[in-house]
Sequence to fold (1156 residues):
Amino acid sequence: MADMIYRVNMATMSFKIEDVPADWMGLGGRGLTSVIVASEVDPECHPLGPNNKMVFAPGLLSGTSAANSGRNSLGAKSPLTGGIKESNVGGTLAGIMAKLGVKALIIEGIPEDDSTFYHIHVSKNHVKIEAVPNLVGKDNYFVLDAMEKKYNKKVAVMTIARPGEMKMLVSNISVRDPKGKLRSYGRGGLGAVMGSKKIKCITIDAENYKEVTYANSDKFKEASKIFTKSLKDNPISGEGMPAFGTNVLVNIINEAGALPSRNFRTGNSENAEKICGETMAENIKARNGSTTHGCHAGCVIQCSQTYNDKDGNYLTSGFEYEMIWAFGANLGIDNLDTIAAIDALMDDLGLDAIEMGVCLGLAVDAGILKYGDGEEAFRLIKDEVPNGTPIGRILGAGTGYLGKLYGLVRVPVVKNQSIPAYEPRAIKGQGVTFVTTPMGADHTAGYAVGSNILNVGGTVDPLKKDGQIELSRNLQIASAAIDSTGMCLFIAFSAIDDPVCLPALIDMLNARFGTTLTGDDVTNLGKMILKTERAFNIKAGLTSADDRMPEFMKYETLPPHNVTWDFTNEEIDEFWNF
Amino acid sequence: MADMIYRVNMATMSFKIEDVPADWMGLGGRGLTSVIVASEVDPECHPLGPNNKMVFAPGLLSGTSAANSGRNSLGAKSPLTGGIKESNVGGTLAGIMAKLGVKALIIEGIPEDDSTFYHIHVSKNHVKIEAVPNLVGKDNYFVLDAMEKKYNKKVAVMTIARPGEMKMLVSNISVRDPKGKLRSYGRGGLGAVMGSKKIKCITIDAENYKEVTYANSDKFKEASKIFTKSLKDNPISGEGMPAFGTNVLVNIINEAGALPSRNFRTGNSENAEKICGETMAENIKARNGSTTHGCHAGCVIQCSQTYNDKDGNYLTSGFEYEMIWAFGANLGIDNLDTIAAIDALMDDLGLDAIEMGVCLGLAVDAGILKYGDGEEAFRLIKDEVPNGTPIGRILGAGTGYLGKLYGLVRVPVVKNQSIPAYEPRAIKGQGVTFVTTPMGADHTAGYAVGSNILNVGGTVDPLKKDGQIELSRNLQIASAAIDSTGMCLFIAFSAIDDPVCLPALIDMLNARFGTTLTGDDVTNLGKMILKTERAFNIKAGLTSADDRMPEFMKYETLPPHNVTWDFTNEEIDEFWNF
Fold:
């Protein structure tokens, strides 16, 4: 049976199941969410008003047996950036949606009765919407437990906690992973959009539905084997990441002088040794944790982990470089266990680790807390943010607005979204991605760290401007395409360095759909996505003046390399000439 | 001696006195500040960073004997709107600057030693900058007293209070008026810009300097007489405003169904009778106050007043319609004395009455206070805002950011600046001004209330779209020109309805400078100013998408007329086709 569009209207509390329009047929993941948002959402609408929509879509290869194909995309107008947003997540969701034949789930409108929150349950040919007053004011794990009891079977679960209910811009949307833990649509404040629609949770039930179909099953298997082997053979995705997780980067980026520390005042952290991936791996081994864990079925990279406390009790999982950097280097907390405890807390509360961490780093400048005070950071996140106290509201709105409220100038955001764990002055290619991607500062949009630092896909001097615009452009085009396949972005290390990887990926797409796509088609898909997103942003009121680094990085030199952000506006604006 | 440009650099703690460039020679007030800001300030700079500038300039006729010519302009990039800002003020400043021969005072840079605040004293051919640690943390009247003691003579004084020191966006810059009370550069958060430059106060001393010179003194006197008579003969500027002040508008706008009430939910206030100009005038008379008072020497309209409490003790002055509306109708306080006490408090603290009032109206939606709770409003403004508590920081950032922090959709701002006391849905011409002026929602930028409601300058149906774009455009062009002369905008009632008024104004300009300006020249000046401001804003990243009413006004009908904001984007964008 053909895939269908499931459309839910929260204003009328009704649903429709529609055929997939021809224009959307060849799209999935980010390609599909961005095209739908651009065609159906008024770019000038209030992102928390009745005219914004949420569009969920599994990738083109999600639900298949392809390795690492379990990413699901969510598109909407972001209340944080004011532009279009695509965020994607692992967990069990993408596979279940794809197997159920849901090409996209579109949620529109806002309930007239906004006195409570609702639960949306999607099953074959049906959507049920019911009020869940008993879940109001509860956090993510409570909802997960409630859904497990309710269904007594594996359903995909998406949920928001109290910050999402309160429409805070640091709130994300959490998704159940195969071990019953949480992954998240992290960035852009999409939890607030779900909160604005009064949706507490969404469950998707694919019971009794089969694997997706293949136009040519044998060819798919053949390509899939090559693809999997390529990922496993790659030194980063096959060795470094399983061993140390994404946190392998702390030492590497610190040595490069590009680990933003103390609210982006230096590129080195005195805490690096204490918080790095090697230390983390030692702790995990000594405490009977696990260094490997996949966020979705079929993951062969297994960059996630289980991190236990000193007594061997579970503390957190999905303990990532960005989280550890934000709290460890940028906020100066030198105790990995404290950071892990905050990580677990933020999972339950559904908070964007980057936005919350960078915000707290800036909060030091505002006099709200002190560097390295993990106890106070924990308290602010536990007691203030989810209770919506005044200080909780301030921190819950993210870095940009904290800066506005306190008259601060050194505010590390692009398009009002916090800059991730790579100092743009010292990894200039990554900086180009931060300023130009339609998503606001986003490290996944075009990972120039690869060739700037990791010697993946060539070598580009991270401290020089030469070649960085073109590099970032090519990476962003490729990433937009990869984000449409449902593939985890970490396949990119292999895709860039191993000549058999990308052809195998394209072969899988063709074997799944009976198409004859070439590498050029994939590139053109990536270009189309970027241009569609950029066009939405322009209509929403963003301009080249939003493709800019915070001004202080232009006149303040960053130790240890004593570099500034020295691109001219004209050089940056060249990015969009393609 | 020719007028000069005084330029102060806070980074180097130095000053220069420069000849006036030929391009600036014919400009004054808003025309001059906007041209200087556009030519010297990077539109992309952080408004609170080292690259913003403050430009003060008296009007072309300031310092002369012309009636109502005492307005002084201040230009900068606004930290509230992100665009260019011109704000003008009465008080003794414009006359003193003009007599001293200061064509413009430009302040740039930020001190390296930002541990204290500074006092800038401008006198003939000299600028003195000194640290004033004893004034840090003090409010406006304390500074006024200190300056009076220090100089023992009449100097012009500009000052910020604690909110300005803290770079809050509701903070304005206060200016001493002839009676030792305060007027203010009210809007756009310019107090925060002064705070960012660590300037506590500026004094200007014109002692022993003479009246400005005239190319033809007799012609000036002749034109001045005609002009003054015209203002006095006009029923609004000659009768209504002296009798009831600007607050005469409460009943008029309420009857028109356009008095925004309870955060712009209805066009009628149940409090109108209790807070209107007529009630205010009765109180003033019964309590030995004064209904007339000019904010600057030479004012013949005298719309200001002295408002005493029940015991006849001074309570406040400069008690304006916008203030009374914001707290009386929009926040629902029905006691004029309470509003007067808040007004006096806000004078001392240097807060923009519109931004603060509208923000508190929205704060009801955020659950921060209740409608009509004047006591709590007073407490929030007195104890929370100037102490920079978390809730004080939230309210101190103004309406737009309060909306962001609390996920609110019904947020009455344009370009992040609060909408003043005229419901755009019910006075559509005024709404066109709110969305199109480069200043952010501003009632003075093009006062379409005149012909929409007051039958001044023709009659246009306020509930219909017909003719409103052209009306607002013409008014904005005229207002930009008037704002360059140093004239109070209230001369407009006469200028529009009395055929001798505007020619007399032009005659005064020509007699002062020996020029041969025509009406067309004045119109072209207005057009040039608007286009210069718009061009700055475009470069700063504002677009047509910022020329929009809050979305809720498009789908929510306003009682009693049950009207929406029904202009299409294309209709609004037509505004700039001139």
Summary: The two ends of chain A are 39 Å apart (CA to CA). Chain A has 24 helices and 17 strands. The interface with chain B takes residues 43-46, 48-51, 79, 166-169, 192, 195-196, 389-391, 393-394, 396-397, 401, 404-409, 538-546, 548, 550-552, 555, 569 of chain A (CB under 8 Å).
